[in-house]
Write the structure tokens for this entry.
Amino acid sequence: MFRISSDLIPFGSSAAMDLAWPEHFAADLERIGEKIRSSGLRVSMHPGQYTVINSPDPEVARRAALDLEYHNLPLDSLRLGPEHKIILHLGGVYGDKDTAKERFIKRWQDLSPAIRSRLVIENDDRLFTIRDVFDVSSRTGIPVVYDNLHNAINPADTSRPDLDWINLAADTSRPDLDWINLAADTWQPADGRQKIHYSQQDPDKRPGAHSSTIAVLPFLDFYEKLPDIDIMLEVKDKNLSALKCINCISNRGISALEAEWGRYKYSVLEHAPAAYQAVRQLLKDKRSYPAIEMYLLIEIALAKEVQLGSAVTAAQHVWGYFCKQASPAEKSRWETALKKYINGAASLGSVKSVLQKLAFKYDEDYLNYSYYFEL
DNA sequence: CACCGTCAAGTCGCA
DNA sequence: TGCGACTTGACGGTG
């Protein structure tokens, strides 16, 4: 799966956009679309929370419908079928949820068939619960994407109206799996595989904020109960977590872990030299597949503060790729940057920036694909 | 060059 | 009534 950014086409949703970009980029779109189709990739687009089709203001609703057209156009231009989805929340409440749901359904009926065939609806983190979403789905047939974190923050009311608040608190939500199984029935063959959103709470941020990375143990605990469906992660480090989870739920061979370690190693080294050594030991047995252990060590290491000494060591490891071929000017730039960092006059980022430019210039792909410059 | 503010979108909740 | 939070990226100004 791949989530296409809403910023794909600059000014794409603006009234000022009069470029015939689908024609202009026809050859590229054809090539990319063919790659998506032949590889079995499923792409999707996620309009922001500002796309509100159920607003009482008809002008807001009109612009929201145009925004959905804007999101549909790239998918149509790639010649992708209706299993490539557009994911939408229900919108605002305006003091009366039932009326707001009715208005969503009415506005949905006026959308073009192409958009309606792509649309899926998701529970949000403060207004419409998964139960509200099922309510709308049962009357429209729109497939439901269940979001576990949103349901934890904004749980569906599973109580009877006569239950008092104490009992309600004790039985505030059904298990994720119940909702996921219910959502399965809303997906038709033309919609492709059922998809859910999975994310974890960032411990230091407001409720509902996504974590920086997916913690592997809670993910596996969640995953082992699931039927065979698609899971889209919502997480700051994006594909890093996706690859982590894939590597932990399937044996992709020790070489896949070694490749991952190659990308993580300098970051781990600057946070925790002991963990760096531990992972090296762990990967020595070439018949093993210690994915979970490796990612746990990486998670623990990256959660620690960067130490100046180990950050210098890691940077010097990276500098080792260039020390022979670098020009005198480059050598002096590196030494100055490192000295300033050690004296507290510059950030670690400025040292890495010097190294990243060298990696690009000298075509060191081992470093160009390293997470050292990202984490 | 790091850092911070600003911009676009619509709604809701809290001063 | 007005402001901040939500989200995402680019971009401009400051020191």
